Amino acid sequence: MNRRQLLARSLLSGAAVALPHSAGAWAAEAAPPARPNILLIFIDDLGYADTGCYGSPIPETPNIDRLATQGMRFTSGYASAPICSASRAALLTGRSCARLGFEFVTDYEDKNPTFDQWADQYKQYPLVPPMKAKNLPFYERTIAEQLNDAGYMTGMTGKWHVAAHHLKYNGWSLTHGPAQQGFQWTNDTEGAWFVPKEERGKYGPYKQGEFPEDELTQGAIGFLKQPHDKPFFLYVSHYYVHDPLATRCQWLLDKYREKGFPDISEDRVKYAAEIEQMDHYVGQLLKALDEAGLADNTLVIFTSDNGGQPDHAWNRPLRGSKWNLYEGGVREPLIARWPGVIEAGSTCDVPVVSTDFLPTFMELAGRQPDADREYDGASILPLLKGEPTPDNLIDRPLIWHFPYYHRRPSTDPSLPIGIEDQYIPLTHPQSSIRKGRYKLLYFYEDQSVELYDLETDISEQHDLNKEKPEVASELRNELLTYLEHVHARFPTPKPQPVTQP
Question: By C-alpha distance, which of 87, 21, 36, 9 is closest to 334?
Fold first, then answer.
């Protein structure tokens, strides 16, 4: 059965489908008296339970925890994808990775395989994923470009990862870097995160409580200290806490080794150290914001691009991890602070997703997003202000699309995707939808589905597909209809060899 036939069959029930908002569908509410600055702190591969305020059992994160006491902590904050590049592309554009055709990670500029060469990489699997997207196209308008039009100064430092790698992995593209896609100030650095392979295991002269200077953070602090005659948007995109795991602070590793927690491997020791080091740099940035007198009129958003890596992150109680669409792959820490607007110490249980940032930021800027395209997010400003949840955020469908296989060659592909199992399982091509309390996963190899009630089963352990077939059918139809609407790319059966007559 081909894709079109499958979709036609799935739509026979005639279920109603909620399609995304167009720009003109958003109500233009009055902006706050002063347009705020916006500071987006974006962490790489941070697991849901890797910080103290989200239940971290080991890593210490006093600065992030303090930020949560000063603002709002979201319990159902989501990344737009379970992997770096796709998540970042969706965040920057307010459009899902399915709509963008940008669902995986980028590649090097000179890697241009034919389809047959690409398919050969997946010869052991029944399906062939779509070929990688390399560059976020220029016809996609980023947050920075749209905020520039609204009179904001825009800056970006750190990991870009929505364009082909130039010279080295994650090297900024000379043609599709942040400067070419709206950012007026840019700072290309990996900061203290990068420790050359030959220097891992070597340590600097850092006493307890001391950390190396982080060029990424210092660049951002320099931006904050500049004179600002108009509001700014600063995107601080960390390489922390992505692997390879390394620190130059011997005392930090010793600290976590001595904690003596059960089930803490050497990789988890290194990971906990990286998290605390990242937290230190977040604290430096927030302190600089205070010292510059900017904190009171700055919306700070702290979140991550996808779930934690399964062999060392703490994603419990969530099932899954980076590279798959169970909750551990996409549910993230998400904290928002704006003194005088966001209630300190508050929490929000309404599901939100990183594609919501663009429409939210544009509403803060007093402008609507570009009217010539559809978006997959909605402004969450009413939630930030503590107002009643607007109708368009109540039980809206949130959709994810990952039409790829993923595993490390050293892992057993038969291992299941569990809860914090500390191995890397095989991910099969899949999509998912959350609507209200229910979440459905759809698997492309056999068109099977799994259904979970997240209000009673946040760990996704009890598949309700057979108990609630009407709910599963409705969500499946809505998911597939959306994917068809946005012209999503799908995995295809592998080419069959041509036999000679």
Answer: 87
pLDDT in tens, 407-465: 876 677 788 899 988 888 899 999 999 999 999 999 999 999 999 999 999 999 999 99
Cβ proximity of 193 and 169 under 8 Å: no
Q: 133 by DSSP, 3-state: which?
A: coil
Instruction: Confirm whether 434 is domain-assigned.
Output: no
> Which CATH number belongs to the domain containing residue 101 in this structure?
3.40.720.10
488 within a domain of the structure (yes/no): no
pLDDT band of residue 34 (cuts 50, 70, 90) is confident
Structural domain count, the chain: 1
Alpha carbons 471 and 308: distance in angstroms, whole number: 30
Alpha carbons 58 and 443: distance in angstroms, whole number: 35
pLDDT averaged over every residue in the chain: 91
Residue 455 lies in a domain: no
**pLDDT value of position 358:** 98
Distances (CA, A) of 406 to 341, 412, 445, 494: 42, 12, 14, 17
> How far is residue 232's CA from residue 248's CA, in Å, rounded to a whole number?
33
Residue 3's φ and ψ, nearest 5 degrees, are -60, -45
Domain with 92 in it: 27-395
Q: pTM, whole model, 2 decimals?
A: 0.92
Asked whether residue 487 is assigned to any structural domain, the reply reads no
